[in-house]
Structure formats: C-alpha cells, structure tokens
Amino acid sequence: MVNKTTTQDKILDAAEQLFASTGFADTSLRQITSMAQVNLAAVNYHFGSKKELIQSVLQRYLSVLMPRLDQEFSQLLSSQKQNDLTAVLSVFIKPLLELNKVQHHGTRMFLQLLGRGYTDVQGHLRWFFNHHYGRTLDKFVLLVQQACPDLPASEIFWRLHFSLGTVVFTMASNQALQEIAAADFNENVEIEGVIHRLIPYLAAGIASPLTLSSQAH
Known about the structure:
Blueprint: H1 2-22, H2 29-36, H3 40-47, H4 50-78, H5 85-90, H6 93-97, H7 106-119, H8 123-147, H9 153-172, H10 174-185, H11 191-207, H12 212-216
C-alpha cells in the first residue's frame, strides 16, 4: 500500500509540473513517466488514461478548495443583505492560499493548471468541473448576479472569463512581478499581497457599467 501511494504521488507530482510548464496537450505520458521514474504500466494502472490523470492532478487541489468555497458561498447566499462584489471575491483568498499546504507553491500551481485547462481546450475538464462542482459554481455566479443586478447573464459570463484570464496570467508571471516590484519600487510582495491587489481590480472590472457599444451587441 505504501509503494502504491508513493508511486501515485510521484506520477502526480511529475504530471502537474509538466502540465503547468508545457501544457496538457503538449505533455506526453512518456515525459511524465521519465520524470517520475516509473513505467507506463504504472500510469495506466493508477489512472487509466491521460484524461483521468489530468483530472486527478486538479482534483488534489479541488478537493481542498471547492468544499471550502461552497460553504462560504452558502453563508453569503443565506444572508439577508445584498453582498458587495468585493466581499464575494474576497471569499477566494483564504481557500486559495490554503492550497500551498497541498503542494509547495500550490496556489500558483493550481491557477496555472486551471489556465492550461482553458488555453489547451480540454473539453473533458469542462464536463469534470460541471459534474463535480457545478452547484458550487452556480452559487458563485448567483452571488455575482445579485451584486451586479444591472448586468445581463451574458455580460457576466464574459466578465468572469476575462477575470479568470487576468488571474491566470498574474499567477503565471507572479515570480517576475515580485522581482520587478522589489527592484523598481522596493516592495516585497508575497503571493497573498498579489491576490489582495487583484480583488479590487477584478471587482471594478466585473461591476463596471455597461457601455453603449456593449449594450448594442
């Protein structure tokens, strides 16, 4: 049992590093087995396929993140007042930072993997998220709709995806941004500080009034 668990973790660790740096589509099972120092049969035995391996890599983080978010979203929805968008987005901060306990630099790693899921057009991940966490995601969208009652659902869809792209890019370049902040502005910014800076920016973008051009379309 110990050997099985160790082998699984070695495969998952190698896979997530390669997926984050190279992408899901451009990472081969041969590369993963080489880094993990296991044979292909071990991958097939523990995960069955590359798709299931991708899902298992993300699930290590999602199993920690999503239950916590679901609880927080439910509490906000049960309140009797209209929730401010900044407060809704701030719910993500602590659960995301807790991912650093899953893996070293887990927060950044997870968001990079999430971004890869979109840029690599992994359709099975859309099914995976909706199947396992659709209710939680619906709660979040509902909270955003309540905080921005003047925005149509289609506009919220676009703005949330623009926001996700901003988060993914920021986390992917987090190390470089920290170095620039230190060199040019003498600021020592950890990842928590980066996230705190992101929240008001995202809230302002999501909640900004509709322009005439966007209303026309």
